[in-house]
Design a protein that fits this description.
This protein is an all-beta fold. The protein contains no helices and 11 strands. The strands form 2 sheets. Strands 2, 4, 5, 6, 9, 10 and 11 form a 7-stranded mixed β-sheet that branches. A hairpin with a 6-residue loop joins strand 4 and strand 5. The radius of gyration is 13 Å and the shape is globular. It starts with a strand and ends with a strand.
Amino acid sequence: QVQLVESGGGLVQPGGSLRLSCTASGFSLDLGRVGWFRQAPGKEREGVSCITSPDGPIYGDSVKGRFTISTDNAKNTVYLQMNRMKPEDTAVYYCVVKFWGICTFSPDAYDYWGQGTQVTVSS
């Protein structure tokens, strides 16, 4: 059974950093296309980042240069390092995985979603 469990959310000041973790079970990370979406109140889900071997990562325009996705296959965990954070980064962040095709920012393309973790950027 595929499961994705996020952790690491919380409150951070503008300009600060936070690292999210997503531990996967029921499959091996290197077989999937894993990534992150986010959803702010009243807004649609937004693709943040996705990574697959050997194509490398993709990032949404709003986070390029500030966020970095990485994986630790030994721990079956994917990370999202978020730097220089802004109030508009406030959202629930979801870990996602798909097993076919390339990375994409179409939410409907993903087979499994985690429960989400709240990130709030505020002074």
